[in-house]
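WARN no homologs supplied; continuing
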Amino acid sequence: MSARDPVRACRVDAHQHFWQLAARAGAWPPPELSAIHRDFGPKDLAPLLARHGIGATVLVQSLPGEADTRFMLELAQRHSFIAAVVGWVDLKAPDAPRRIATMAAHPRLRGLRPMLQDLDDDGWIDDPALAPAVEAMLRHGLCFDALVLPRHLPSLLAFARRHPELPIVIDHLAKPAMGATPDARWLRDMALLAAQPRVECKLSGMVTEAGPGWTVAQLAPHARHVLEVFGPERVMWGSDWPVLRLAADYAAWVEASEALLAHLPPAQRDAVFGLNAIRFYGIARAAA
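OK structure emitted
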């Protein structure tokens, strides 16, 4: 790809969602979360992307069902800014490899994400039974998005060590409590995961965890730790829109992110704001 390739030149939102409430059958979000309790689609996000110079996104699943993945892939067919889709397959199903192969036939499917944060078993991911699904993911060039909470990090580390060739990205910094001082266990566990060369991290979801009234100073210690242990070459920026709307608008998060990354040289900021996602998800290859 040449240096003037338009995909390489743009910023990438590495984590966003679309949904239709009618298809969610009472699933999250509940009505009391009025800021996000409605349909969200490409026409809602496209003006925000244009306003902030973001040329591509990674559309991520929000329901544990293949129908949601098909819905996202259909949107990707019609909207070119959706450069990659992270879908869902039951990775422990006996026919998981076949299902993965079927989904991976669509060129925009670039990853899979089990919703680990919602499972009763905190150690679900630390299971050799996942091996056939992981082998199928590797065969089809797919990445693994880890939707986890801090308590899942030891099990995720065991999974990463068992499958060292699988590209893994931790969503939303693993959703740590955004207190003034980062939790010591989170600091340790994220550093251990960062020592695995195929594990990366998304700089996303922070303001939702911090809640209304958040400040850049509140977010900074957590962002700084992720940048230090993973390095700017393994951190990718995402909005988590429209969930973001619970605590901020898109412009506020872009501005906060600029402040959190201001100490980096331009090449490293470019990596976090887009080039790392392009590399990780194989966006140019998927769009070809």
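Confidence is low (pLDDT under 50) at residues 1-8.
OK
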